[in-house]
Structure formats: C-alpha cells, structure tokens
UniProtKB/TrEMBL annotation:
Keyword field: Iron, Metal-binding
Cofactor(s) listed in the protein's UniProt record: Fe(2+)
Domain of life where this protein originates: Bacteria
Residue ranges of domain JmjC in the record: 110-241
Organism this protein belongs to: Streptomyces coacervatus
Name this polypeptide is given: JmjC domain-containing protein
Lineage: Bacteria, Bacillati, Actinomycetota, Actinomycetes, Kitasatosporales
Length: 396
C-alpha cells in the first residue's frame, strides 16, 4: 500500500486548521493518489470474512436502519479445544447483504495491519485515539438513518459511489450520538457524490446520511475521537493529584473529626496551586504524547530486530533506544543496570559508554565495549540490542 500522508487527507494543513477543522465539512475530489483499492477492496473483505476468526463487535450488520442481532449471523466453533460462541458465518453475512443490509467492519486497524498507517497519520498529527471503520453498502441502499457521531470523520471512498447528505452542525455540540428522521432535519445544506479516491471531512456531531448509487459502495471512515478540554483537564488533574501529599486516607463519614473540612480545603488549595504552577506548554506536549500512544495505532519491529541481531557485525551503527535505563554503582568492575524491569550486570566500561551516549548519537557495535577486541564488543552489543537498550541505525 502507498504511504499516504496527512496532506493527502486534508490538502493544505494551514487552510484545513484555519477554515475547516472543528468548523465545517471539507470535500477533496480525487485526493488519494494511486489505486485506492490497494488500501482496502471488496475482494479483500471476502478474504477476511472467510478467515473464520471474525467475531462481533468487529463486524456488524444493519438492515433498514436497524441492527441485525448477532445471533442471526454467528455460530459456535471449537478452536484448539476452546468453544468460541460467536464466530461469523460468511454465508449468513452474504445472505443479509443480498437482502440489502450494510456490513460494517469496525476497528479494521486492529485486523488489517496496513490500515494502522491511517490511524498513525492522524494520531501523530492530532494526538487523539483513531479507529478505521469500513462500510460496504449494496446498490441503491442506505446504510443508516440520518445521524451524527461523537467523532470527527475522514471518509475515503474506495469502490463504487455514495451520495452523502449533510446538515448544519447543531447549536450545542455535546459529543454524543443521535439519530434523526428526515422530517426533523429538513433539506440538507450540502449534497455530494463520493467517487473512488475522494475524501470528505466531517466535524464531530455533523448530521449526515449516505446511500450507495449504481454499484456496491465501499468506504472507510477514519474516526478521530475528540479530546475535549474536560478530557485534557482530567488527565492533567490525575497527574497532579498523584503527588504523595494526596495519598492520605481521611475518614469523611458522619463521625469525621472537626479538622477534616479544613484539611480538605487545604488540599484543594494545594491542588489549585500545583495546577496553577504548571508550565502550560510542557503539559500540552505531555498530553499530546499521551494522545499519540493511545491504543489503535501502535507499531513495532521487535521480532525482526531481534532476528537481525544475530547477524550484527562490528561496523553496524547502533544508538540508544527510548527504553529507560537505571545505572547502579560500579561494584568490582561491573555495573548493575535496570532495563524495562530487568536487572543485569554489565562491565563498567559498557555502562559508562551507554550512559555517555547523547540522544541519537551512533556508536559502532565493535566499540560498545571499550578496550576489548571488536568481536567481543559486538557480542555485548548483541545482548544489549536484544534487551531493547540499543537499536540499529545504519552502517559505519
């Protein structure tokens, strides 16, 4: 799959954030370069359906605006002696689809590794939790009744076409779910036809409805879950309130002592002072880092890295990873190190070399252990790489 960027979704970032983000819909025709079926295709969904491991809530079925009970398309199977009670039956899904039902594939980023790229694109930029949901709708059918969602949406049309009707944002946006009747909404303020490669951005709580045209429609909804001020403040409060002074256990029942109320007031004052003294920029950076590491977009190559470590040579360049390392005292020429909860003792020169490496500074594997032959130093480097202390960055 092509490596897509945030700009593929939104175009000019400055224009997007100034004019559209959290304000109004944005339509970008033919925004996604290449064959978008490489992202996800109807054929690929056929393959996924027949893996015999798909279970609700990863797949849902909606018919005539209502959800089909899961028992209508699941069965029990035995896997390695374990009874799985709700495995999807492909034939029943196909039967419902032929009858006009929309098949919804939830959190595809947890099932299709390539789709995690989209979640990372948005999580890295927006510092929020992101999920990818696929909607496959039969020809001339409407998947869901008019509604709004508690998430921002980047809609990417992959196959077929779908006509979208959009209504103005409500005056009060609570970040909730809501469904409407056509009569309640009246005439849409925007009506657009999405074709393969088109992208439509909808701010959270935008009322919308969509229907397939002359072909089966497949589109992705990349869902960006807003972090409201109340969410950010709650995370900041939890961080500040973790200070030791708030760990005391008071009795606050009817028989509480007379000084508890004044102590409570003191704690509130102390908490407020701690909140007030925060560096707003640093705290927002911390909150952004938390948002980028939320579930749904993680990735790694640890298996591959460990496998490649067996072939490490002295001229391979390594660098410190982000793994926290605690260095103990030098005892008899060996230094105790704690890495990811594991305690190991390494030759003191190795510990000194590691402790002296600046962020991103490369070191040849053959020089990780100063004062010994390159082959022995490389063996030490292999052990540290397997532990996650070092990682390969290039060749010397």
């Amino acid at each position: 799959m092509k490596n897509y960027t945030f700009e593929d979704l939104v175009g000019d970032e400055k224009v997007f954030f100034a004019e559209y983000f959290n304000k109004k819909p944005l339509l970008r025709k033919a925004a996604m370069p290449g064959d978008v079926r490489d992202i996800l295709s109807i054929r690929k969904l056929d393959e996924l359906l027949h893996l015999e491991v798909v279970r609700p809530p990863y797949i849902k079925v909606n018919h005539n605006g209502s959800g089909v009970p899961e028992k209508g398309y699941t069965r029990s199977v035995v896997v390695q002696g374990v009874n799985i009670t709700d495995t999807v039956v492909p034939e029943k899904i196909y039967e419902l689809f032929r009858a006009g039902a929309t098949v919804t594939w939830c959190s595809l980023n947890q099932v299709v590794p390539e789709l995690r790229d989209f979640t990372r694109i948005i999580s890295d930029k927006m510092a929020v939790r992101t999920d990818v949901v696929g909607f496959m709708t039969p020809t001339k059918k409407r998947g869901y009744l008019p509604h709004h969602d508690p998430v921002d949406l980047f809609i990417v049309q992959l196959e077929g076409t779908k006509r979208w009707r959009l209504w103005d944002l409500p005056d009060e946006r609570l970040g909730d779910n809501a469904s409407y009747t056509d009569e309640e909404l009246g005439e849409p303020s925007i009506e657009v036809l999405l074709e393969p490669g088109d992208v439509l951005y909808l701010p959270y709580n935008t009322p919308h409805a969509a229907a397939a045209e002359d072909q089966v429609s497949l589109h992705l909804s990349i869902m960006m879950r807003p972090r409201m001020w109340k969410d950010l403040l709650r995370e900041t409060f939890e961080q500040v309130a973790s200070a030791p002074e708030f760990n005391e256990y008071p009795h606050i029942g009817a028989l509480r002592s007379s000084d508890v109320e004044s102590l409570f007031r003191q704690k509130i004052t102390s908490l407020a002072a701690r909140m007030d003294s925060l560096d707003a920029g640093n705290e927002l950076d911390r909150l952004a880092d938390l948002g980028r590491t939320m579930p749904g977009s993680s990735h790694g190559t640890t298996f591959q890295t460990i496998a490649e470590t067996d072939g490490l040579t002295p001229d391979v360049l390594l660098r410190r990873t982000a793994a926290p390392v605690e260095f103990g005292a030098n005892e008899g020429g060996r230094t105790q190190m704690t890495v990811n909860g594991h305690k190991i003792a390494v030759p003191a020169p190795v510990a000194e070399r590691l402790a002296g490496l600046a962020d991103g500074e490369p070191v040849p594997a053959g020089e990780v252990f100063p004062g010994v032959p390159a082959e022995r130093a490389t063996k030490a480097a292999q052990g540290l790489t397997r532990l996650g202390v070092l990682e390969v960055t290039g060749a010397h």
